[in-house]
Amino acid sequence: PSRPRHTNRLINEKSPYLLQHAHNPVDWYPWGQEAFDKAKTENKLIFLSVGYSTCHWCHVMEEESFKNKEIGEIMNEHFVCIKVDREERPDVDKVYMTFVQATSGGGGWPMSVWLTPDLKPFAGGTYFPPEDGVHRVGFRTVLLRIAEQWKENKDALLESSQRILEALRHTSEIRVQGQESPPPAKEVMDICFQQLSRSYDEDYGGFSKSPKFPTPVNLNFLFTYWALHQTTPEGARALQMALHTLKMMARGGIHDHIGQGFHRYSTDQHWHVPHFEKMLYDQGQLAAMYSKAFQISGDEFFADVVRDILLYVSRDLSDQAGGFYSAEDADSYPTTTSREKREGAFCVWAAEELRALLPDPVEGATEGTTLGDVFMHHYGVEEAGNVDPMKDPYQELKGKNVLIACRPLELTAARFGLEPGRLSALLQECQQRLSSARAQRPRPHLDTKMLAAWNGLMISGFAQAGATLAEQGYVSRAAQAAAFLRTHLFDPDSGRLLRSCYRGKHNSVEQSTVPIQGFLEDYVFVIQALFDLYEASLEQGWLEWALHLQHMQDKLFWDPKGFAYFSTEASDPSLLLRLKDDQDGAEPTPNSIAVTNLLRAACYSGNMDWAEKAGRILAAFSERLQKIPITLPEMVRATAVFHHTLKQVIICGDPQGEDTKEMLHCIHSVFSPNKVLMVADGDSAGFLYRQLPFLASLERKDGKATAYICSNFTCSLPVTSVQELRGMLSP
User: Which residues form the signal peptide (predicted)?
Assistant: First the structure.
């Protein structure tokens, strides 16, 4: 490539997203004091652009506007321009997205916001086309109008920005009202179930027509609802909704049938044509959901999907030091000679390409049948392409096929006169061949940023899968990633988590010059991961670190007046608002996970202040939970766990003993959403015995591994039979 004409300050950053913009003709600054001082000294407005490296429309706006020399000159003359990676700085993103959503009724990325020199927003939106169109004002026009307003009506703008900020501060406040207590579990669970049931798509699963998102938080809620209502029609429906959704997703084009893993979301009702980026947080949560589906149903289909997701992450999103990368892009070059990237180019197929790669005749099938015929029939391939033009406005997928398993294996087998087992082997052979062919294509961009929060979600995915599928290799991978976090994303001097680190030169792991401190979401997802990892590995060191981080989380983020946790610390003067997220989205809101973490922490430590804190979070969100619980399904689930009281399942035995292993296998094979597991191994100097002195009074019966089910530290009679234990694990 030729030497770039422009280089701005972003060249010194570590974020792959910021580095993508380092050669724009725009004089970009990273978020920080240098940019703020320049705006004040020169009395200039700030233009803030927020996005992330795998965001399709962020790429489009860069190509159209930020690479345009004339538009760059307008931006540099009138504004101090700041670029933010929303994955690196979710705190900055959240403050200004709250403003954009409140003033425009929508939001998304790229986010474009204009701020006064003291960082107060007064105008904003998302993607802007470069020039005026029939229905939209162009970016150039918006820039010039705002610059003119600042020159002519500065005082009015400043006054308006102050009013907007006060209104945002008022409307975004979440706090306990009076003597409010946690809402009743049954009522909140039932309303949430009814709201989800009404939005459920009976044919294809999921909870909207289109676009359609995986929403693991909904599935997790439904599994818990089923567990607590197993003998009712509502409970049966909840389970059916969750399992059908997971099955349809796994068969759909949102699932990468050749390269494994899941794309971000489907643009249509059928889970067929996705937005092709792959995010780490989806893989982590979906691995956990498919593990639970297998645990509940015993259907190997779900176990195979778990293995598929974890193969993808191990191969394509893993750093050799043990951490997990953030994402793979949707866009890539169709061929090595292409000049322009296209969405989905790495993943889609032309019919003639498949015929050429799979020409072999299939023995035993109806005469003349080739591998290509079988594969194309099973995966819905059409000669002219199988993508609805309405779902492909830029014709990037014209003539191409997104693979979708649109019929059961048995039907395809019958169609060609094959045994299902043989067909399965043939399809596997096809997939391997296509995988090799796909490896010759230019790969999509890989975002090699490693985030504490998302690594936490992925560790939970590996740990839960390892425990449920009895795959020790997955537990070891989770432990390797947790050790990576402790080495690279934890400061032992301050005892605090860091937000991010990066793959550097020669595969080293690098940190920013000024590391970004961890946010609430980093703490809650890492603490959850460490609890999951302890239950899968029984290594008490992970438990000890989790409880340390819980104390630190309380110190940095707890709101002693209004209750619940703020998303950010109080110490950053550049953040105009301290917010509490109030909606479960692609990831659960941190306060939702914090409730369950606190209840688990109380069980492992005997510190009942934590259980009390869990109740106070529910009290702070009580009004929202009772009116629109569908916005917080994970917190509704936590409400049920709070009211049902967690069972402490304690095994007294040698962790290496066969009788102990048999009991652990039983526990891991039963879905029980309101339990914590611990092994009392007789080491009275160990961490658990120091936390919970009552463990010393529990002993093995007749020298065998013995289980106790305890509630609020009061224990049942000892149990040595696996069958009896299984019965006692039911919620």
Answer: none
